[in-house]
Specification:
Layout lengths: L1 E7 L4 E9 L4 E5 L5 E4 L6 E10 L2 E10 L3 E3 L3 E4 L7 E9 L3 E2 L1 E3 L5 E6 L2 E10 L2 E10 L3 E3 L3 E4 L2 E10 L4 E2 L1 E3 L3 E8 L1
Parallel strand pairs: 5-12, 13-20
Antiparallel strand pairs: 1-2, 2-3, 3-4, 5-6, 7-11, 8-9, 9-10, 9-12, 13-14, 15-19, 16-17, 17-18, 17-20
Length: 187
Amino acid sequence: MQEDQIICPACEEATEHIAVKSGSKNLVKCGECGTIHPISKERTRLASVKVIVNMEEQSLPYHINVPAQEVLRVGKELLVDEPPKEVVMTEITSIETDRRVNYARADEVKTVWARAIDYVTVKFAVCYGQTTRSLKMEAQGNETFRVGETKRVEGVRLTITKIKLRGEGFADEAQAKDIVRIWGREA
């Protein structure tokens, strides 16, 4: 097992170390000079956090363990993993302590609301003169869409003309997880 950047008493600087023994006395070996010395590992206290994950048309409750001192923020990505449920990458949309807040330490949080961002539904509006047709497409959250790009959505070939972002405003390119709607014209 390899450790990252521990101060070696012989080298007097941070070097890579290899774990020699773990338990009540943790011993590591300096990767530079070979000195074996003890280190103390602080135990990380965990907080159980309830996370309500919105996956388009359903919301599922999860309970995850997070380091108690970790600060959770609205807009921050959070990996939600509660066996045997599916592992989901999410973005925090709301945090509740004794009230709604934009950030809080994990041990202060009662509930986190988040939306799944690993796979998302991208909404399209295709204009046909005075008529607009709504279409949907499933995409990976990190898939990029660009103005001028041509896509096939629900059997319709369209050219992207405008992308509206979740935060606010518009962009010439964005990842699916950040998009509210894409406008296009039939190609």
